[in-house]
Amino acid sequence: xxxxxxxxxRFRPDALELARAIARWAVEHECVAVIDEAxxxxxxxxxxxxxxxxxxxxxxxxxxxxxxxxxxxxLAGTPVPIIGVNLGLLGYLATVEQEAVVDxxxxxxxxxxxxxxxxxxxxxxxxxxxxxxxxxxxxxALNEVVIEKKDAGHTVRLGVDIDKAPFTTxxxxxxxxxxxxGSTAYSMSARGPILSPRLRxxxxxxxSPHMLFDRSMVLDPSETIxxxxxxxxxxxxxxxxxxxxxxxxxxxxxxxxxxxxARFVRFEESRFHQILKTKxxxxxx
Length: 285
Fold this sequence. Notes:
The protein is an alpha/beta fold. 20% of the residues lie in helices and 40% in strands. The protein is built from 6 helices and 18 strands. Keywords: Kinase, NAD, NADP, Transferase.
């Protein structure tokens, strides 16, 4: 019996109603709908079971790209395929529209991989936080790691090594280390390049740098980036938009490509440049 996980935008009534409809669909098709305790408090679906969504056969994310990021974070590297249902504006990650959800579930349940649907594996980065030689946390990111100033009106100093070789010290508002998937998020707003999500690469983009070198760099995924907090100011560390820690001077962050991937279910050929074209209203000529 297939287990279908649900991750939902908890503040959208249409997302909650769709989650309840999917839970009913699961029962009708001899599947089990699984939700975590936090979503269970708002969905109110008697057909759904409270459990571990990382142990499901597929996870349906209902909301938008933000909900997709939360779903990836909840899976913590487990390669459960994710069907992203978009209820907002055009999304980069959530590509199934609300009216197509039932068809998508039918295709996943009864169709064949490579015919009715396919998998789109996206690179993750592994993030290790260190303080006084002790590892504080080891986390995964789909979009980006942001190391940023805590206090308005001040820059921070961040010493960067690449593959154990000193590179430079950034004097900036912050530093973004992004994946190709994350190149269209915060890095793009900081004037970083847009990368195809089919690539495996590490993108380093400074935020408002106070120095002559203000360019982004695209690194090979085999390279490891080490960032040390210098000077006397602390920094905030956010992963995929969620604040995870505050680091003090002398603390270190190490970022490298992860072995794990985020796995999305695609039901039609996905052309990234066509999503960009629609997103930005680009003309044919």
